[in-house]
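Changelog entry: the C40 family peptidase record was regenerated in this release. Current contents:
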Amino acid sequence: MRSRTLALAVLLGLLPVGAARADENTPSAAQVQAAQQTAARRSGQAEAATRALAAAQASAQALDVRAEQAVERHNGAVLHQQQAEARAAQARRTAATAAATADAARTAAAALAAAQYRGDVRPGLAGLAGLLSVRDLHAASVRREAVRSVVEETRRVEDTASAASADAGAASAAATLAATAARAATVEVTQAQQQMQAQLTAQRTEVARLAAERTTLLAQLAAAQQTSVELAAVRQQALADAAAKTAAEAARKAALTASDTSPDGASPYRPGDASAAVAFARAQLGRPYVWGGAGPDTYDCSGLTMRSWQRAGVDLPHFAADQFARSTPLSYSRLHPGDLVFWSHDGTPQDIYHVAIYLGDDQMIEAPRTGDVVKVASLWIMGTPNFYARP
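Regenerated structure tokens:
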């Protein structure tokens, strides 16, 4: 700093006396030093604010992942509840049919007993009429044997029907309990979902506050450095973009490396399937993300992919993990437009929490998160996908 002051003094000494006196606005060495200290302090504050904002954004992104996990757990619980209730309804229908069969068997047995008492037979036993009308001892023995055989067969049918009715009743009760448990699970994950939404909303509020604080500090820094807020913001954005580009390239290389060693069992498309799915997804661009949304005006991630492939004639459940289970896995190098791309929290298919539709050229269409809309994004925006599959 002494050298700068000395240089300034030498420079002033070289100027004509009149010029030096005329330039009364020339800053003193102390003023220059103070300005430099102010700029340095503002720069440090801006950098600290940038770090705090980045940390808050990272926290929000982590909450986004947890929120999507909550959404998919909710979707899975709803799907399982629907399946359990369908099984319970079928079990009740089976129980009712079995009970009706048992009642019919008991009615048949009662009718046979009445026929024996009266000495005649029911229409269904008309084939035994000749035997039952014979008078001699041998015929009577045959008659008794025939009646006994019919009685035993009727009793067997009745017993079987009663057992089937009891089994069906037990199955119905078990299915009803399962459906009740599924409904309770749905309520539980819905509550967890709501709690996660509250946390995410609070975190987004904190991100907005830190972003505003950072903008103020950048403005102060720009003033201290005699530059513009726009220039400072552009520089910060350029640094962020460069980091994102580096991360995307690393993710792409990782995907290509995995493709070299991954088995590929991809099946060919039927004509028009993929294009119909992609066209439908494109038509939803700009529609808001809503948890559990499956169209026509709002979507979550698996709701969008479900409806897109439904338009292509393929039925998928509203549950990302099941969408992967019902599709053919493939590698990144074999991706075609329309294929599905999945992310998992722990790298297992069971913990898939996000799904999107591949467009080609490392682009995808996704319904990303609460507060956002269906949009086109980089395939690598969330890091390397865990799974790729073709419905």
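The chain has a mean pLDDT of 76.
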